[in-house]
Amino acid sequence: MADIQKTLVLIKPDAIQRELVGRVVVRFEEKGLKLCAMKMTHLDEVTLTEHYGHLKEKPFFPSLLQFMMQTPIVAMVLEGLDAVDTVRAIVGSTNPRVADAGTIRADLSMNVPSNMVHASDSVEAAVAEINRFFKPEEVFNYEKFTDKYHFGEGI
Ligand code: IDP
Ligand code: MG
C-alpha cells in the first residue's frame, strides 16, 4: 500500500548559478508531485550544521557549508504517493557520475557537493526537515483536479 507523504527538496546554489531552477521544478511537477510550499532563503551555518549533522566529521564538511551558502537556495515541499522514495528516485544517487541516467543529478550535474538538489531520505527526516525550513502556515494542503490520477485509484 502506498502512503501519501510530504518531503523536502532544496535546490542548491549550483542550480541557482546555472539557471536550472525551472528545469528541476518541472521534473517534479510533470511526475505528478504536488507543490505544497516554496520559498527562496539564504541558509546560515547554524541551520546547515543541523541539516548536515550526519556529515559533521567529514573532511569536506566546511566546504559543503561554504558551497551551500554561496547563493540563496530554493526550498520546496512536495506531496505524493510514497513521496520520500519517489523524489529520491527522481533525484538520483549522491555522486552524479554514477547516478542512473534520467535522474536530475545524472542528467544535469557532474560533481559533489554541486549535485543540484537535496531530498529527504526517510519519512522521519522529511518531517524534521519540513519543520526546519517551513512554518506550518507556509505549507499548503489543497485539492487539484489531477489528484484522482496521482493520489487516488488512478481512474
Ligand atoms: P544525499 O544528498 O544524496 O542524501 P549525503 O551523503 O547526505 O547525500 O550528503 C549530503 C551532501 O553532501 C551531498 O548531496 C553532496 O552535496 C555533499 N557530499 C556528499 N559526499 C561528498 C564528498 O565526498 N565530497 C564533497 N561533498 C559531498
Ligand atoms: Mg542525505
Name the features:
alpha+beta, 8 helices, binds magnesium ion, 4-stranded antiparallel beta sheet, Alpha-Beta Plaits, 155 residues, binds inosine-5'-diphosphate
Describe the structure.
The protein has a four-stranded antiparallel beta sheet with strand order 2-3-1-4, with helices on both faces. It is globular, with a radius of gyration of 15 Å. The model has no long low-confidence stretch (mean pLDDT 97). It has 155 residues and is α+β, with helices and mostly antiparallel strands. The relative contact order is 0.24. It has eight helices and four strands. The protein has a single domain, classed as 2-Layer Sandwich (Alpha-Beta Plaits). The site of inosine-5'-diphosphate (IDP) has 9 residues, from loops.
Shape verdict: globular
> Mean of the pLDDT scores?
97
Query: What is the spatial order of strands in the main beta sheet?
Result: 2-3-1-4
Which CATH architecture? 2-Layer Sandwich
How would a textbook summarize the main sheet? Answer: 4 strands, antiparallel
Query: How much beta, percentage-wise?
Result: 15-25%
- Distinct small molecules bound, one entry per kind: inosine-5'-diphosphate, magnesium ion
Q: Which stretches are poorly predicted, pLDDT < 50 over at least 5 residues?
A: none
**Helix/strand/pairing class, anyone?**
alpha+beta
Element pattern in H and E: EHHEHHEHHEHH
Give the total of domains.
1
Helices, by number, come to 8
